[in-house]
Amino acid sequence: MFYGMWKYSRAWVITILTLMVSHAQDEMAKKKKTESIVITATQTYIKKHGLKAFAEEYYNLLGTKPTAVINEKNKHLALALGLADFVKDLPVKVSKKKVLTAVGPKRFKADRKSLSAFFLEQNALLDGAQQQMLGWHFAASDNYASVMSNDKRLVSVGWNVSAEIKGGKDFSSYTFGMVGCTALAAVAGDGSVHFSHFDGVANGTQVKIFSDFQKRFANPDVYVIGYHAKTLAAAVKSVNSKLRIYVHAKAKYLETNYTVHLARKNGELIISHASTAVAGDYISSIHNGSYGRWFAHGRFSEILPPADKSFVKTSLIEYK
Fold this sequence. Notes:
The chain contains nine helices and 14 strands. The chain is of the alpha+beta class and about 325 residues long. The chain has two domains: about 100 residues, no CATH class; about 190 residues, CATH 3.30.1330. The strands form three sheets. A six-stranded mixed β-sheet has the order 3-4-6-11-12-13, with helices on one face. A six-stranded mixed β-sheet has the order 5-8-7-9-10-14, covered by helices on one side. Strand 9, helix 8 and strand 10 form a beta-alpha-beta unit. The termini are far apart.
């Protein structure tokens, strides 16, 4: 009798485990299918309309705008992003609350993760700065306080954060969306690099993080870039008067956006930047609290880097 009960229980357990595995496989297949649809629609839209047009459309459909406009031009992208309920009787305006409810937070985050991985692989479709920006953008936290790096020493530095790149090997790092903020870089004698991007006129946290770096690496060369570059340079100088500090003062405050590139190539340090105009509702959109901490869901087309050939060597003067 006990043997029969054991056989029955064992068969029941095996059946349950089989069903669980089957369900997990079905969910995985469904996820991969969804990822494939999103990536295909994204790639098709970019090839047909351009990268900036895709960024504008994503902001229209899923960003902090109060309403999404779905039309014949973007309907396939809307379908891929989970808005099938609204793709009828076009054009149509849909409140963003309805859009986000339809998509759901789980899919919303999963799609952004897939897009991040997709953009980081697009050597043929995008230039290097664009790859790193979009890979970082779609993986970043809502407040953009994220650093992304990989084993190729490609580093993307977000907002109100810093990164440290150890040793003297080659690397390539960017920080994006520098409108009113300031970038600070420091290069130590052994080649190690500190790179930060903070808001404010002379952000105390930015100064403190740098101070900790220079305590470990004696008298690094310092580079400060931004509208408030000279003010931050003065604060840094007060930490250590022996520092050699070089500044680049951004000419316009909120009217232009800088993408700053800090790299080492074949042992040579490279500091360059690209400047683009800020227009439309960029400033207000990134300060729209619809998502809690909102930056990553604003009009990010305004901080897209241009082609790599548009970057120019950053002119730096020594701060005395």
